[in-house]
Structures are given as structure tokens and as C-alpha cells.
Design goal:
The chain is an alpha+beta fold and 313 residues long. A hairpin with a 6-residue loop joins strand 2 and strand 3. The longest helix has 30 residues. It has two domains: 202 residues, Butyryl-CoA Dehydrogenase, subunit A, domain 3 (Up-down Bundle), CATH 1.20.140; 105 residues, Beta Barrel (Butyryl-CoA Dehydrogenase, subunit A, domain 2).
Length: 313
């Protein structure tokens, strides 16, 4: 289902989004949120694809003409290590990359790997190459199961460098992409909250349900307002000359994450177990969003936000 939906979005041009920082960033994030309201898992892969396109544009790299769906595989873990050898057109990748979403769905990926110098580089890889092999899935949670997130083994896989070593993390667009993820979180939260809005419109609605909806509605509105504010700030300073793009991104993600948590918790408390047991679509959305928002690093992210906020005063 996910691969088919992504294919339809690609064919229809739904994933041809404005680039961040180009003056229409609010529309970019609004469209990502709308995709997530339709399907959280497919939107997670769509966001990665759109981020890859933005990365290549920012780093002035031409997209492969054979590419259809891009992934961005940049997670680092002690459970796997990926190394790059050689340089330029002769670069190859060896090792294991963990947390590769769309491992069997994407046609190409931007992948981070360690260089011989110890620096971190970014590389474009054609996933059809024989040197790229997704490993058996170890995913045991219903949430985001259709994202096909697995480890991938690279064996002398050809790769093309994208940007300079370390540039993947140092560029302003890294934080633009982080906010794009939050836009998808918000769209997913809207989908999860939909049954609560429906219940509130019934004549028999009780005051407690209305109170829960009021809190959810306020939280979702706060998340949307933060995304609009962040979009304006990014368009005003796309190259991060003011040096505050990380603060903007972390504030936005924190507010949206709070909206997600409020939505999941209060919708469950207001509606009880019935929708989670009897409405397959709602149950899937809750499971998917619960897993997706864990891309946040929780208190570690809040600690970093506190440091940045304190320094900005």
C-alpha cells in the first residue's frame, strides 16, 4: 500500500515541492503536513525524498536521471558502521547502514559514511547495484512497519560524493529538513485527532470530551503557528547568516512534538478503547505516529534547546 501510494504521488507531481528558503517554505511544509494526514508512513518516505532533492539542490549536485524515489540514510549507531574508500567517481562504500527507511522501496539514497580521514561524508547511491543488499527486517512494532526500515549491507558499492566532507550537517538546510519532519508530525496528529472532532460534533457529546478537544485544538494551532513562523524566518534568512536556524528548528520541533503527545493522549482518554480496537485506520495512525515522533531525542533535544535559548537572550 505504501509503495503504491508513493508511486501515485510521484506520478501526480504531489512531491514536487518548493525548496526550503526559496520564499514559499510555508507551502512546502503545509503540503508535507497534508500528505501525512492522508498516510503517515507514506509521508515519512515522501519527506525524505523531498529532503534529498533539497539537499542536492543546496549542494549543487545534479539528481540522477534514473532516480525515482530517494531516501536519506544518515543515522549513526554502534550496531553498524559504513566506510567510504577512494574518491570522486571511484568511491565505494563498505559496511552496514542502520535505520534505512524505504530499504526495499527507494531506488536511490543519500547515505552518510565515514571517510578514511575520520570525517563524515555524504554519498549518492543507486540501490539497484549488486553491492547494496537490504538485510532481513528486525522490526517488531506495528507502528511504521510499512516504512520498510531495515539495515542495509554495502559491499564495494559505487557511490558519488555529495558536497564536501562534513557539509551534510553544517549546511543550513539540515535544519530546514528537521522542520519538514515536524510538519509531517503535525499532519499525522491532525489525522489522529479527527475522530475526536467528529465526536465533539455529536449532540450527545459530554463536557470532558469537549475539554479534551479544546486542549488538542489549541496544541495543533500552536504547532501550525510555529511552522508558519519558522517558514517566515527561513525565507528571511535562507543561508543562516543570523546563525539561529538550529534554535528555530528545535523550538518548532518541541512545540509540534508537544502537540503530538497531547493529541495521542487526549484523544485516547476522550474516546476510550473502542477506536483503538475497532477502527483499523485510527489504530494504525496512532501506532505510526507514536513511532514516528520518536525520531525526536526527547530530553536530549530539550537540553540542547535550553542551551540555545539561554544563549540567545
Amino acid at each position: 500500500m505504501t509503495a503504491g501510494l508513493i508511486g501515485r504521488w510521484l506520478d501526480s507531481g504531489a512531491l514536487d515541492l518548493p525548496l526550503p528558503g526559496g520564499g514559499d517554505t510555508a507551502r512546502r511544509w503545509r503540503l508535507l503536513a497534508a500528505l501525512a494526514k492522508v498516510d503517515i508512513v507514506a509521508a515519512r518516505l515522501a519527506e525524505a525524498h523531498s529532503d534529498a532533492v533539497a539537499i542536492m539542490a543546496e549542494l549543487d549536485v545534479s539528481e540522477s536521471k534514473s532516480a525515482r524515489l530517494w531516501g536519506v540514510w544518515a543515522a549513526e549507531s554502534r550496531d553498524g558502521e559504513l566506510n567510504a574508500h577512494g574518491g570522486g567517481d571511484t568511491t565505494t562504500l563498505d559496511g552496514t547502514k542502520v535505520w534505512c527507511s524505504g530499504a526495499g522501496i527507494c531506488t536511490h539514497a543519500l547515505v552518510t559514511a565515514q571517510l578514511d580521514s575520520g570525517e563524515r561524508g555524504l554519498f549518492a547511491v543507486d540501490l539497484a547495484d549488486a553491492g547494496v543488499q537490504p538485510l532481513p527486517s528486525g522490526w517488531h512494532n506495528a507502528g511504521m512497519a510499512e516504512s520498510d526500515t531495515r539495515s542495509v549491507q554495502f559491499s564495494a558499492a559505487p557511490a558519488l560524493p555529495v558536497g564536501r566532507p562534513g557539509e551534510y550537517l553544517s549546511r543550513p538546510g539540515f535544519w530546514h529538513g528537521a522542520i519538514g519532519v515536524a510538519a509531517c508530525w503535525l499532519g499525522g496528529a491532525r489525522a489522529v485527532a479527527e475522530p475526536l472532532y467528529v465526536r465533539a460534533a455529536e449532540a450527545s457529546v459530554d463536557p470532558h470530551t469537549l475539554a479534551h478537544l479544546g486542549a488538542v485544538d489549541a496544541a495543533l494551532a500552536a504547532g501550525e503557528a510555529m511552522l508558519l513562523w519558522a517558514a517566515s524566518a527561513v525565507d528571511d534568512d535562507p543561508l543562516n547568516r543570523k546563525g539561529n536556524v538550529e534554535l528555530i528548528a528545535r523550538r518548532t520541533r518541541a512545540v509540534v512534538e508537544t502537540a503530538v503527545e497531547e493529541t495521542i493522549t487526549r484523544t485516547g482518554r476522550a474516546l476510550g478503547p473502542a477506536p483503538l480496537c475497532q477502527d483499523a485506520q485510527h489504530a494504525k495512525r496512532v501506532a505510526d505516529l507514536t513511532m514516528y515522533v520518536r525520531q525526536s531525542h526527547a530530553e536530549k533535544d530539550l537540553e540542547r534547546l535550553g542551551l540555545l535559548a539561554g544563549a540567545a537572550r
